[in-house]
């Protein structure tokens, strides 16, 4: 039956697709991979399908008692108030955290623009989460030019958790968008491209408005990456820029920690304050029909169990409903994917030292898994993973080979652009026993040298530019 709710959602969906097509084409053109455009657009369609499923679950299965309906109720009232010329938000009197109030206001603005259709609001928030995934992919393409971009795209746009959970009116969609914006800003910052600090700051501010403890994790990973980042070749101000960068990140980290302390009502400081956050989280999440006994990691021997819990649980025998069963199946598939990616994973330590973006995502991922191991509810944990997987999946798409040569010579290009280092990869293995000429793979005695590898260059065209590759 065609109602205003459905028709308006259909119209909004078409508009969002039209806005996305140029982004998909640009990404495919930049990467030189026509398949990428199809992957991106199929990912958007799957997001909309998931939004329909989330809407049905919220309205029918939960009989309107889902969190999304709370945001929609506030949003409908606020949007109607704005249409009457009153833009003052008065929802704070009805309780809720600062992050909850932010999403209520955001929902009001969405419904002010799209109309009172609740179905359309689901599509818009689903698109927010899609944009976050898109930004994560562009960050990967820029910061890990030798990585498997198509593999990362398949995982990023087709992983069930990333399709389903953020495709609803709520905090997950906004968090995926702001984390993606942060990651893209970090990638530009680490690549010495313009606008990196500005974009990263916008992402950090956006995430801090809803979940400041996630901002702490991002800022912590960025701090490690800035320390590892190499100075810009030929720049005499490299050490100064590094010190300034670390200072900026430190200030952002301090503000994020203060926001997290206010969010959780922490009175302690340092380690004690962090323990209070973890204890409060464990108590709040160990309720409901999917609770389990969470164990906070207190020593290095507890880390493997924490990682296993966050990534793979619930197991099949721990699933007591259809939703938990699907989550456990995804966990098994993720376990298989990680096992098949062992060649890439064993390169992570080396890549962390060579590529600061890999260090950034690895630090964030480890911090996330240690922090969220205290969550004692499978349902909540499954939703929260959508904030982990875009970072973690980077480690499953880095090169499986070993860097044997890096040409650091950067030459001038159009608009004073720069050539990035040419990275030559071989399958992982023991170090070659013979030396090689620059830019040429090593050979063993008695064997003719192989032809020189094709060069890769990157051209960054200003504020919104991304890496482009050519022969």
Summary, kept brief:
This protein has one domain (about 5-65, about 115-395). Helices cover about 60% and strands about 5% of the residues. It contains 19 helices and 2 strands.
Q: What would you call the structural class? A: mainly alpha
Fraction of residues in H or I helices: 55-70%
Strand content: under 5%
The number of helical elements comes to 19
Strands ordered across the widest β-sheet:
1-2
Shape: globular
**Would you list the SSEs in sequence order as H and E?**
HHHHHHHHHHHHHHHHHHHEE
State Rg: 23 Å
Total DSSP E strands: 2
* First-to-last CA distance: 54 Å
Low-confidence runs: 403-426, 431-439, 441-446, 453-471
Number of individual domains: 1
Q: What is the mean pLDDT?
A: 79
What is the makeup of the main sheet? 2 strands, antiparallel
Description of the structure:
It is a single chain. The protein is globular, with a radius of gyration of 23 Å. The protein has helices spanning 4-31, 34-61, 67-83, 98-114, 118-143, 149-158, 160-164, 171-190, 196-208, 212-228, 238-264, 270-285, 303-312, 322-340, 342-345, 348-354, 356-372, 378-384, 389-392; strands at residues 401-407, 422-427. The longest helix has 28 residues, at 4-31. A two-stranded antiparallel sheet has the order 1-2. The chain has 471 residues and is mainly alpha-helical. It has one domain (4-65, 117-396). The model is unreliable at 403-426, 431-439, 441-446 and 453-471 (pLDDT under 50).
